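Quarterly update from the structural biology core.
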Amino acid sequence: MKRQKLCFSLKLGALLVTQAMFMGHAMAATSDCSAGVADSLTQMFTCGTIHGSLRALDYSTNNAYFEKGYSQDTFSYGGTLKYTSAEYYGLSFALGGILQRGIDHNEDHLVAELGPNETGVGEAYIKYHYKDFSITAGDQRLNIPFLGDYDWRITPMLYRAVDANYGDSDNFLHATKVTRYKSWGDQGFHRDTEYTNADGTNEGMKTNGMWAIGGGRAVTFDNKKLTGQLWYQDYNNYTKMYYGDSFLSWTDNPYQPKIGMQAIRGLSSGNAVAGEVNSTTYGAQFTINFTPSVVWSLGWDHIAASNNAYGDGALVTPYSHNVSSGTYFAQPYFTSTQDLGSGNAYGTEVDWAATSNISVGARYTFMDLTPGSGASSTNQSEYLAYGTYSFGGTLKGLSITEYAGVQTTSNSAGNFWQSNLALEYDF
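Predicted structure, tokenized:
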């Protein structure tokens, strides 16, 4: 079955690549404007671009989440396709679609991390851009702390939001208002979060969204660069969060060492429907380039214990619960640091760009975290290996990636194994 699914994914990938390349050439043939800026309303449409990500994913687990004998083996394919218009007097728009289909998606094989079949509208927004300022309104991807799209899956996490930014990636002011959310496992936008019941019937945990404001600054002195960012986020009826981090890097040192610090504070907000929130996290990170192609990092986070609070002091993250650790310096791949309790989290990773086409890496994390007051530590270890082969030439944009590993704990009857083999074409 494994070999059949892999052969199917390779054939599917070749077909999708051919179709995408044809669409790209067709669009380019009609374009006669430059830098995505239109001189007329007609050019706003004819000079637009098509982008997408087409994927085939073979996903397997054994003793999933330490449930003895619970194994999953499923195959999904699909992706995203989006048309973005050219700018006309600073205005542009985008419209996209999402698709996911599964093979052997019966009750025993439907994997929660991928969700059911999906067909629907994905990104759909209008945008205004002037010099260093931009504002986007509609259904879109976001990239601020704990609001990402974590796109190893087939379809992305999307947000119905108004998102404004002034500046660049280092020096910026940013404001976001979210009203609705589309999980990677859903094809529609709702008042749900990742804490809402899977069937969507828990009305008491519905929300009117969140808002956030943040800023970043970078300064250089001698041979060093110092960057920092601060954020305030308020999740309706869940939590209000303060987030900050700072990095000091030696830019002209051949090893390019970088030291990072972060702090996160979470408190209850409104009805606190996920539970009382009283969370304090601080962490440190060190990164160094042993060679231009070999990068090693070491991360640590401490989550202070808080009796009677959610997760013994864990952070409530409505849009990344059981999804990803987001910006935590020490984070496993299978599970999420913020969902495991209070204590200390450690992580180390090495990444090697072996050639222009091949990159490989390994990560080890140890979660000395306690899920509740009086409980013992989970002592969760994760051993992860990964690799990517990226094609070149006419197949540029096509890649094959494998993530495989195992988690162990001190109180589990069996180890948790996971394999994630993906064929992806981005254009």
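Helices lie at 2-29, 41-46.
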